[in-house]
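Input record (Table S2, row 898):
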Amino acid sequence: MANNALIKDFEALLGPENVFSSEADRQSYSYDSAVLAPVVPTLVVRPTTTEQLGQCVKKLYDNGIPMTVRGAGTNLSGGVIPDVPDTVVILTNGLNRILEINENDLYAVVEPGVITAQFAAAVEKRRLFYPPDPGSQSVSTIGGNIAENAGGLRGLKYGVTKDYVMGVEFFDATGEVVKSGSRTVKCVTGYNLAGMLTQSEGTLGVISRAILKLVPPPKASKALMAVFDDMQKAAEAVAGIIAAHVVPCTLEFLDNNTIVRVDDFTHAGLPRDAAAILLIEVDGHPAQVADDAEAVERVLRTTGATTVHVARDAAEKTKLWEARRMALPVLARARPTTILEDATVPRSQIPAMMKVVTDIAAKYRVEVGTFGHAGDGNLHPTFLCDKRDADEFARVEAAIDEMFETAISLHGTLSGEHGIGTAKAKWMEKETSRGTILFSQRLRRALDPKGLLNPTKLVSIR
Amino acid sequence: MSDLHTLAQRLMALDDRLAACMRCGLCQSVCPMFGATMKEADVARGKLALVNNLAHELICDPQAVAGKLDRCLLCGSCEAACPSGVKITEIFFEAREVVNAYLGLHPLKKMIFRFLLPRPELFNLSVRVGAPLQRLVLRRNHDVQETSCAPMLSFMLGKRHVRPLAARPLSALTGPLDEPRPEGGLKVAFYPGCMGDKLYVDMAQACLAVLRHHKVAVFLPEGLACCGMPALASGDAEGMLRQISVNLPVLRGDFDYLVTPCPTCTKTIASLWPRYAQRLGTLEREATARLAEKTLDITAFLVDVLKVEAPSDGEGSLAVTYHDSCHLSKGLGIRSQPRTLIKASRPCRLVEMNEADRCCGCGGSFNLSHYDLSRRIGQRKRDNIVESGAAVVAAACPACMMQLEDVLSQNHDAVSVRHPVQLYAQHLGLGGGPAA
Ligand SMILES: Cc1cc2nc3c(=O)[nH]c(=O)nc-3n(C[C@H](O)[C@H](O)[C@H](O)COP(=O)(O)OP(=O)(O)OC[C@H]3O[C@@H](n4cnc5c(N)ncnc54)[C@H](O)[C@@H]3O)c2cc1C
Ligand code: SF4
Ligand code: SF4
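Output record (iron/sulfur cluster complex):
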């Protein structure tokens, strides 16, 4: 536990109700959603104003204490597990104000602890649209989304979080405020530091405010579901849709194992022998939506879909999506430990990647269900096991290692959206280069000479 | 220390169920406690982690873990939203039991759960003595919710605005009932629950009137005790078992359904009695299993069994909004039936509020031990109710009704609180509706 003087200091700054020093409280900030060992921080503080946030960072820097910024703690790569036991965790959920939604200039200004879905709902009330929709959006924070560059189901057409970051304000390691970007569509004043902070996983600065781009909402949408008896045909359908110049807002798939498990659970009558189900949604102007849906249907039929369902109304659309919505819940229930991976490959390599995932599962005798964003080549091979079984868990780890090897050899990437954290740090050099690691480390050391900001994450500087 | 080790070993019985939590954090979005405090130790993920740590001897402060476990409404919102299907409330009940066994049950709670509640005659006597006396201490608030406050009892009631105890409990008003089953008709056992028997007697009477209207024979035996939930929530499974043992012989009779207007009672009888009766004898196990099959919430009975329907033209003049009680909606999956009942009741027009299924913050004894938090959670519900513009809020749970009356009265809102069955009773001309 932190020494009393430090606790008193923070209590004076933030009020005792925002400083958590008891063992029980600290233990509840020792983990995130990654399957990694917890580390209990020495103290947890919750600033409720931007000024306080800056003062916290400065105080910790002055005292040479490592710090980890924590949003909702839902990242899947260990990003908010304290690096060392003398870490202080800074919570952002006391900074959850939406400061401005500008309907004329199509942007919003928010504090970092604003919850993604609540923000999207507030934007929708003003008849605008904030597209990034990670599966965790009901709890994840905008700060966490920016720091992980979170994606979601709408990535193919609308992009990911980075495509909506117009500007950020952040505190550097010393507590100095830095501003980058603006409320304008164009802004080239200085380095693109906002871009640098995006995907920085809490290692370069502490985001205190963000300016986010908003877009007009689509006026109509239509959902389709197609069943394939062969993964290759499903992949050809995906390629065919893009080649037909249709960019669906979502293009998701489920593999056989996932389909069977969802059907076991919901008794929805899904095709249990299908190799893959594709779920496609097109949106935009009503006339275009009708055209696009027709084009998609044509591609699905010519590429050999065994069945194609087109949702006629909202209720049917909800029903079509049910299988996808249930994918994670059903897989998660199968075994105690659920490891949600996000290896990503170029779209055309999906069949090759899926074959490897299936082979690896057999080779290491592990259970995997795969679903994901087919349009983005972003797969979520979900490993189901019991981490208390050391032998099984070792096989799962070996299987995941081999899967990464393959993803890289197929010109893919370790992580499409879940981040590196500590979970995948050892793979960084393999995908990039020695120089990339050294450059990143030099950058970090220059900006954070005492090595205090999430020091072992991404590329370790400890 | 060896004691702590024993405590940990007892908690290891939960290990498989604890391991099912994948720490996704999605429970944050629905947990009323987390909504009020934004502290990780207040959300299911945090509490499960602490129980896990206590079981694995990673924390040696059971008192602190008990304190965290106690900051929970047992509303089950987390469990209903959990993608991993973690049996969260089951874990919480059992963890509270193990930890409280180690720490010792508070003597007052012990007296209430093990001595008073299993003895309905004593419980009734204490209420009968208390009800006239309360006139001396309660001050009427002259609000539409008909609550009072008790400056003289502030050490006990705080600043609560509560409805006074009924002058006479339901059981004293009706006496025991064992009506003959009509030719080809139905007979139900009516279990009013403690609050239906002693506080919301008018609501319980409305239930009986509606049952009579539908020509359903009623069995209301003498000597019903509490369902045991308050004891179990305090970690006193023993107290609950005693109450089950008192109820079972009393509920022996020939009836088709056991209906209650309290979803906590329904849920307890339907799913917890059979589970906990495993610790009793074969006879008790069989009896609870039989009862569980027959147990039904009263709105579900009216709509699903008696087929009460809402008219398709239902556009009444009285705006009524509906609050989904946690134990009814998340616990029993009953959402449409109370709404149907409201729509079936002239002159009601159902208007949905935002977050209708978000917990109101009562949580039974949680309200007694954490009134400040309960009020904070209740305020969000109150805001949603008022924003809906309704003149009446219906809730099919007496504990929710009490909480809604308190928060609305504290805010001087002219919104009255009713059980859907009361609205339906008024529609049938049986009394019990809103003054409006
Ligand atoms: C069930 C589930 C589904 C998911 N689905 C998706 C998905 O579809 N797409 C996707 O991309 N991700 C997904 N994720 C991963 C995760 O939700 C995202 O990474 C999300 O962006 C994390 O947000 P958070 O608020 O929980 O951040 P946290 O986990 O608290 O933090 C994440 C990282 O951001 C840093 N950070 C947080 N706030 C700040 C700040 N103010 N300044 C600087 N750094 C900060 C932290 O230090 C940490 O490194 C999912 C996770 C779960 C559990
Ligand atoms: S939602 Fe369920 S699995 Fe996820 S953290 Fe909460 S309890 Fe655990
Ligand atoms: S039961 Fe209710 S209050 Fe308790 S942790 Fe779950 S959601 Fe929160």
